[in-house]
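User: Some background: our group keeps a shared notebook of sequences we're curious about, and every so often someone picks one and asks for a predicted structure to add to the entry. Today it's my turn. The entry only has the sequence so far, pasted here. Could you supply the structure so I can complete it?
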Amino acid sequence: MKQVVLAEKPSVAREIARVMGSHQKHKGYMEGPQYIVTWALGHLVGLAEPEDYDTRYQKWNLEDLPILPEKMTLKVLRESSHQYKIVQHLLKRNDVQGLIVATDAAREGELLARWIIQMAKWKKPFQRLWISSQTDKAIREGFNKLRPGKEFDRLYESARCRAEADWMVGLNITRALTCKFDAQLSAGRVQTPSLGMMMKRENEIKDFRSQDYHTLHIDLGDLQAEWRHRQGDGRIFESQQVQQLEQALAGKQAKIVSVKKNERQEPHPLAYDLTELQRDANKKYGFSAKHTSNVLQKLYEQHKIVTYPRTDSRYLSSDMTDTFKERLSSVAVGPYAPLARPLLRNALKIDKRIVDDSKISDHHAIIPTEEIVSLNALTSDERKLYDLIARRFISLFYPPATYDTVQVIIEAAGEQFHAKGVTIKDSGWRTVYGEQWGEEDEDEDATQDSQRSSDRQSTQKLPELQQGESKMIARCVVKAGRTMPPKRYTEAALLSQMEKHSLGTPATRADIIEKLVSSDTIERKGNHLHPTGKGAQLIELVSPELRTPELTARWEQQLEKIARGQGQPEPFLQEIRQMAQSMVDGVKKSDVNYKPHNVSSSHCPECGTRMLEKKSKRGTFLICPSEDCSYRRSTEKQLSNRRCPQCHKKMEIKDGKAGKYVQCLGCGITETLNKDGGRPVNKREQQKLVKKFEQKESFGSSLGDLLKAALEDKKE
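Assistant: Of course. Here's the predicted structure to add to the notebook entry:
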């Protein structure tokens, strides 16, 4: 008797099949003496659509909302139904007695497997493969330690509640907004509060009023000190005050009233979870969160050199400690060799900042596997991402960075001045980063001109100073500044805020950002995210409750309780139903107007409606907003191979009410294209083509037939 192994992707299934000896290839699965390995292609089964409950829901009507089925049902997804039939057939084979779920070891992976099991009516118990890397060793060990599927029932219930809640809220609010305002508007429990945070920041920037200010420094020869107000702020907003201070300080003695020395230790940073890695990749390389996820998945699945990527933990488990040296050995190549090899000679120092079982949920932090890395086999982006992971892992076993800080308070003419210096004693873990380690990350969620000016004061190498010592003021240095508004979010900063407010999961945050971009509610400008005119209006159309992250944070807390067995699904879903009803009612009663922000001056050649301009990865397109018309075209110039018969310049393909035509980029003359988009054919060419066909043996057809054949032959 055999067991079916259900993986999430074909690539993972192939690796499992290779390791477990299932070498016979079939359509949709691989078979061996003991295991039949198949895959899910992501979701094969999903929640039914409204029209599956009632055909009247095929047409979107505001009066039909909200749509809240008493019991949610499942359906096989059309685009992957062929693979579902294969999985279903395998589960019903007479020689199959067991099922091993090998989908991603996370909430979403559990959900897609359970829905397939339900739809296929598998009634027998099943086992769960729960692994954190794709190496051969990890797969074999995982099969030796299969866990009963029942252990993950609560995780499935949490995932089911999340999916049904998103369906009830997202689908109903999206339909309500679209019907009410006659525009393609979408909302959801994660994307809308994420947009709300960006709009809040945008309003802060809009309302900000910049001010000029000055800072005053005194030069004491071997050090400089900055004037500060008694409350700690070093900015002076009145120019008269600056002049008075300069006059009062000129040629005066300054007295050192305080010298504080402290030895400080800076421990190594924690290992990476997905969100932290996405943040660093965005700051250092400008990677989008989605791009980081895609590259990381290749390092995990294809190269097998990093552990499971979709984790929210930054700690490692105690049962991994015996593997640390093997992992360091696999990393000790190229630039990492001189950093990792010294660690292999002695016992590793492992503390609670590295190993802490209490802070691991489903998966530990992202670290290298025991697989020896071949750096030459990696692409440029893969190499960059692996560099972050490898250096972070190596740094875990280095000592803290130690340095002395010196803070000096100086008084002159009744005013107080401050200076600080740092002396590095031991670089510790910072050695791993060398010159790559830049300045401390600035807080992108704060204004640049906040009263933290003292924290941003540049450090300097200070001489030996004694309390009570006096020095002559050589000169005063005045520097001009201007208060700055809060910064717009980068993806790194937005990810931090999404994590802080529990918006989404590490695995879904990148997709949420991409969804906001693709729906034209935000756009990328350089490394910053800007709300569009559509996004600014949309946030005013939805319920105030949905705009802020507090609602979603509360949901996530409830879902986490369900996953831990401390909460029940039905009360949660009942609350969601009531919320969906309330939000739809709010849209119905709304008297707010919506005006499309991207209306172009062009009219649709099919129906005459003013078209909307929409940006995408493939360029800018003009799209007809009419429901009955699907016309769209690129705004980029489409050049034909046709040369102008008069000036011989290239001709541009254009759309007209009568069909496509070409227009010369030089003199502007136009020619009509034939119906299926081929090149234009003039009378002279027709005569040449007819003469050509007259010389053929097949001559005898009518002139019309000859012309038709000739055009087919000549058509590009």
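Suggested note for the entry: The radius of gyration is 33 Å. Residues 437-456, 696-703 have pLDDT under 50 and may be disordered.
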